[in-house]
Amino acid sequence: MNALLYLSEGKLEYKKIPVSDTPEADSIRLKVAYCGLCGTDMHIYRGQMDSRVTTPHVLGHEASGVVEAVGRNVNEISVGRRGVVMPLRPCGECPACEDGLSHICHRLKFIGIETPGALQEYWDVPAYSFLPIPETLSLKHAALIEPLAVACHDVRLGDVRAGQNVVVLGAGPIGLLIAMVAKHKGANVILSEISESRVQLAKKLGFDVVNPRTTDLIPYVNDKTNQVGADVVFEVTAHSSGAEVMTALPRCRGRIVVVGIFAEPVKVDLKRFFRRELQLCGARVYEREDFTQAIRLADAFPLDALITDVFDLPQAPEAFAYLAGANRAMKVLIRRDETIKE
Amino acid sequence: MNALLYLSEGKLEYKKIPVSDTPEADSIRLKVAYCGLCGTDMHIYRGQMDSRVTTPHVLGHEASGVVEAVGRNVNEISVGRRGVVMPLRPCGECPACEDGLSHICHRLKFIGIETPGALQEYWDVPAYSFLPIPETLSLKHAALIEPLAVACHDVRLGDVRAGQNVVVLGAGPIGLLIAMVAKHKGANVILSEISESRVQLAKKLGFDVVNPRTTDLIPYVNDKTNQVGADVVFEVTAHSSGAEVMTALPRCRGRIVVVGIFAEPVKVDLKRFFRRELQLCGARVYEREDFTQAIRLADAFPLDALITDVFDLPQAPEAFAYLAGANRAMKVLIRRDETIKE
C-alpha cells in the first residue's frame, strides 16, 4: 500500500510500504478516508521531534475511515463501521493511569508519533482507540473530531458556563473550535488573533474578534465585561505575548486554561494571581468523554468553514510544504483518494 | 500617646502623637498589647512602598489588644473585650465586593498601610475589623492570628485533605504556619528552606525539612510519594528558584498555591502544566472564616516556637534594624510596654 513517510527535517516521501495480511489480534485495520494535518505533524516535519519518532515514520493522527478488517480478539467492532481514532496509548500502570487519568499517563505514547500514523491507505490501530461515528456525520467532518475533542476537553477543564465571558487567545483551528464549544455552552466569546485572514474567518463565523496589534485587548475585554474581566481565558498561542496578556484579562478568581504548548519557560506575572486569586490549569489532549462529546456536537458545528484545503495522499508532501508557508490555510485535510466520499 | 512613625527609607521615629478624645462613630479604640512585624512592614521600612503610605506613617497590622473605647454607633463590642484586627478595608462596590470576595476588592485598602497601623499605644479601627478572642488565648499568641489566618486561607484554597502529600517552599513564618495548618488537616508535609536556622526550627517542630542547597528536592519528594508527586505545593519564597521548582513537584492534576508575592514576572514552565494538567491558584490575605478558623486553631498550635524576639514599643526602631539584618529571627513581636500580660 501507499504511505507518506517522514525521513528527516523537511524531507517526506510518498511510497509503497508492505502491509501484513491481517491486523494484530487486538487491533483493527482502518481504510483511511481523511486525515487532518496538525501542529504536531508540522513539528515532526520540521525535525523538532526527531527524538520521539523512528524514521521512516508514517505521519498523521487526525483520521476518519472505515473498518476494513479486525484482529481475532476483536468482537465488538464490525467490518464496514465508519469511525475515528482516539490516538492515545497509555501504559496502564503509572500513578496517572491508576487514578483514571490515562490521557496524562507518565509514559503516554501517541499513535502517529511513537507509532505509525494515518497518512497511509490502511491504518492498524488498537481496537480500544476506535470510536464509531453516526451515519449523519461525513467522513470529511469526522477528520476534525480529534481537534474538536481537544476543544471539548479544554472547555470542560475551563468549567465554562452559560452567560460567562470567555476570551480565546489565538484563532487557529484549536482556538476556533474552543470558541465554538464555549459558544455552544452559552458563553459570550471574544477571540484574539494577529493573522488578518484568521480574523476574517472568525468574523465570518459570527465571532467577536480582536486583532491585538490594532486594538488594545485588555480595555476591550474590560469594556465588554463591564470592568469585571473574563470568567475564563484560553491561552492557545503558546507565545510569550499570550502568557503575558492572559493574566491581565480574568476577573477575580477567574480561570486561565493553558492549551498552547510552550517549548520553553516564559515570564508569567504571578503577582496577578495573588492580586485577583486567579486560577490556571493545564489541559492536555482529551479523555474518552471528550471524544464522544465531540462526535455528538460535530453535526451542529460549521466545521466546513475550518477546512481550507484538501489534498490527495500522493500530494501530501506538497500539502506539508504549503502549510509550512505563510498563507490563509486553517485546517488542511489529506484525502486517501478520489474514491472517498465525503 | 506614643507611636512608632515611618518617615522615609530606613528612618523611623518613636514619638508622641496627638490622640482624639473618642474613636469615630463606627470605630473602636484598641489598647494595643502585641504587634508582630511582617514582611510588608519591612517593605515599607525599606522605602519600597512609599507610593502607598502617607508619611509620617504608623506601621504595624498584626496586633492583639483590649477594647479601650467604642464609637457611638458601636453596640456589639464591649469595652474590655480582648481581640484582634482583620486589617482590610474593602470598597464594598467593585465587582469582587459584589461577588462576596471583598478580600480581593479591586480597590482594597489595608489598615496599617493606607491608614495608620498598630505600632502605637491606642489604635482606632473600624468596628467590623475587630474579632474577639477566647479567654484561653494569650494576647501574645493572638498577635500571630493574622499570619495564621493567611495560612488558613492558603490551605483552604489549596483544598488540602487528610493523607495528602504537601510541599511548602519556604519555612519563614507563613511557610511554617501553612505547614502547621496542613499537618492539622492530616496531610504529610515536606518543607523546603535554605536558611539553616529555619531548617533547625522546623525540625524542632517535628517537620520533614529539606535544604535544597544540600539535598535535591525533586527526587526527595518523588521518593517520599512513591514516584507520584505532591498533591499540593505552596510557593512561599517569592523567588525565581521557587517558581522554577514548584512545577516539577506536583502529581498529575496536582495543585500549586502561589502565596509569595512576586514583584516581577518570573519564568514558569507552562509546558509542565500541559503535561500533568497541573492547577495553580493565587491566594491573597484571608476571608473572615479564615480569621475565625485561626482563632479556633491557635490554642492547639506551638506558636511560641515562632516568636523568636520581643521588643517593647520604645525599642521598635531597633527591632526593625534587627529584623532587616541576617539572623535567626522568625517572628518578632512588639509589646506595648511591660504592663502587658501575655
Describe this structure in words.
- Two copies of one chain form a homodimer.
- By secondary structure, chain A is an alpha/beta fold.
- The first copy, chain A, folds into two domains: 2-143 and 302-335, Alpha-Beta Complex (Quinone Oxidoreductase, Chain A, domain 1); 148-282, Quinone Oxidoreductase, Chain A, domain 1.
- Chain A is built from eleven helices and 19 strands.
- Chain A has helices at residues 39-45, 95-98, 139-142, 145-157, 173-184, 196-204, 217-224, 240-245, 270-276, 288-298, 316-324; strands spanning 2-8, 11-16, 27-36, 57-58, 62-70, 82-85, 88-89, 109-110, 122-126, 130-132, 165-169, 188-192, 208-210, 230-235, 250-258, 266-268, 279-282, 307-312, 331-335.
- In chain A, the strands form four sheets. In chain A, strands 3, 5, 6, 9, 10, 18 and 19 form a seven-stranded mixed sheet that branches.
- In chain A, a hairpin with a 2-residue loop joins strand 1 and strand 2 (11-16).
- In chain A, helix 4 packs across helix 10 (288-298).
- The longest helix of chain A is centred in the middle third of the chain and has 13 residues, at 145-157.
- The radius of gyration of chain A is 20 Å and the shape is globular.
- The model of chain A has no long low-confidence stretch (mean pLDDT 97).
- Chain A binds chain B through residues 95-96, 99, 101, 104, 106, 157, 226-229, 235, 243-244, 251-253, 258-263, 265-284, and chain B through 95-96, 99, 101, 104, 106, 157, 226-229, 235, 243-244, 251-253, 258-284.
